[in-house]
Amino acid sequence: MTVGAKYGEKARSSSSSSCNSNSDSNSDSGGNSKSNSKSNSNSGSNSGRPAMSSTHKAALAQGRHEGRIVRRYLDAIQAKRKRGPKRSHGVIEQRIAAVDVELQGAEPFDRLHLLQERADLERELVSSDAPIDIADLELEFIQVAAAYGKRKGLAYPAWRAVGVSPGVLRKSGIPRTRG
């Protein structure tokens, strides 16, 4: 094991380390080689890579920021588009009470599934209390969508396929394309 690998650094390719093994290492009785010299990697944490410029760091931060905005908006429109009838708080609470009654005499296998159903119902109850402010998320999305899409190579049909409306795409400056 090299010194770098011992301390979590990426291992060098085996061909380059085996070429120098005769001059720099001794073999113990088990055939394992022990290095007499320190690894020729840098002692810094960047593993021999040049330091990032401040503009590169800023671009990475901007990409992360835009990615978070896009993710939040897409999650919000997905949550808004859930199919099927919406359950009221009363119906959810009634089902939680019924699950509690069923849990009292349930076998372990059934108990497992009932406990999961109860957790799902409680999560649904909490999430239905917190309305999603889609308008604010949409405004943020409109500001970053074109740049994010251009950088990631996302075209109009991809945005539409995940549920972004044509109006929002138009406001974002993402052109409608054919093919």
Give structural notes:
With 179 residues, the chain is mostly helical. The protein is 62% helix and 3% strand. The chain contains 9 helices and 2 strands, in the order αααββαααααα. A two-stranded antiparallel sheet has the order 1-2. α7 crosses α9.
The main pleated sheet reads as: 2 strands, antiparallel
Q: For the CA atoms, what is the radius of gyration?
A: 28 Å
Measured as a percent range, the helix fraction is 55-70%
Contiguous runs where pLDDT drops below 50 for at least 5 residues: 3-29, 35-44
Overall geometry: elongated
The beta-strand count equals 2
Structural class: mainly alpha
Q: Enumerate how many helices there are, as a single number.
A: 9
Average residue pLDDT? 77
The rounded distance between the terminal residues' Cα atoms is 53 Å
Question: Strand order within the widest sheet?
Answer: 1-2
- Listing every helix as H and every strand as E from the N terminus to the C terminus, the arrangement reads HHHEEHHHHHH
Strand content: under 5%
